[in-house]
Design goal:
The chain is of the alpha/beta class. The protein is built from eleven helices and nine strands. Helix 1 packs across helix 6 and helix 2 packs parallel to helix 3.
């Protein structure tokens, strides 16, 4: 495969790009960042450009046999619509065999007023309509939330020093936590497995865990007692805004505000392994992921 990866400079797209490159598949991506500010991704070729300009997107897709798309943290419907239209048009023009779309999040069955859900639903609709009868296969993966988000400046110090796992989800919310690496494996499978064109997969981890169960798994991985502390989504949003800016933070936090109000409480739960079986995936248990993280990074930081 020669894969056009949209979002390779981010955490989710970056994990996908690294996995593809590790397995010998050339990767090409697009970035607005100056060359000096781009991450080091061996095996990935960068082109300058913007998803808002069709000519840039067309150039990204030139020579690509496959595409993996993770939309940036943009939640303005008009802008997202333009991005999605450009991507669908470029995929058709390039004759891409299969496009895999990572929605960033699960998507509720019913429409909501949450931009984090509805802009991703909009993108999927554009892809399904824009790629229909084009010869470009579409596969959609819908992840829950990421363990990697818990290895962060607002989680690490409290875990290391106090054994507190703070998360902006109600304690009873069942979640099939996955890592960015698990996501990359799911995208890779979606790119390569036969007979799944047109399907959507609610990917997830090996187990569905409530907050206290997640804390127990962290405790086993860290070898210490850990308790779960539900974090008010507004507090999470303000903390995230310091790193990503207010608009992306509001978009990301919309998912947590929604879950805090009990909308579709099972939205982030697992599917009893159905997607993992179809994609031949074996997500790592939470304990294993915890044991692999360099928690000593936060030893000198105070919560």
């Amino acid at each position: 495969m020669r894969v056009a990866v949209v979002g390779a400079t981010g955490y989710q797209g970056g994990a996908t790009a690294r996995l593809l490159a590790e397995r010998g598949h050339p990767v090409q991506t697009l970035s607005r960042r100056p060359e000096a500010d781009r991450p080091e991704l061996p095996g990935v070729s960068f082109g300058g450009g913007d998803l808002g300009r069709y000519d840039d997107v067309r150039q990204l897709f030139e020579g690509a046999t496959h595409a993996a798309v993770t939309m940036p943290l943009v939640y303005q419907a008009e802008k997202v619509l333009r991005y999605a239209q450009h991507l669908a048009k470029a995929a058709r023009a390039a004759g891409v065999r299969r496009l895999v779309y990572n929605t960033n999040t699960r998507i509720p069955e019913r429409t909501t007023d949450i931009a984090a859900f509805e802009t991703r639903r909009l993108t999927e609709t554009v892809f399904r309509e824009g790629l229909a009868h084009s010869g470009v296969e579409l596969v959609v993966v819908r992840p829950p939330v990421y363990l990697d988000d818990l290895f962060s400046p607002w989680n690490g110090p409290a875990l290391v020093h106090e054994g507190v796992l703070a998360c902006p989800l109600p304690a009873r919310t069942p979640v099939a936590w996955i890592s960015h690496r698990d996501l990359a494996e799911a995208v890779y499978a979606a790119l390569t497995v036969d007979g799944i064109a047109g399907q959507s997969f609610d990917i997830g981890g090996a187990r569905t865990l409530t907050g206290p169960e997640l804390a127990e798994a962290f405790g086993r991985g860290l070898g210490r007692s850990v308790r779960y502390a539900p974090l008010e989504p507004g507090v999470f949003e303000r903390g995230l805004a310091r790193f990503q800016g207010p608009e992306p933070a509001a978009g990301v936090a919309g998912v947590y505000h929604c879950m805090a109000h009990g909308v579709e409480p099972e939205l982030l739960a697992g599917d009893d392994g159905a997607s993992a079986a179809l994609l031949s995936l074996k997500p790592a248990p939470v304990e294993e992921w915890v044991m692999r993280q360099p928690w000593q990074l936060w030893a000198g930081e105070r919560p």
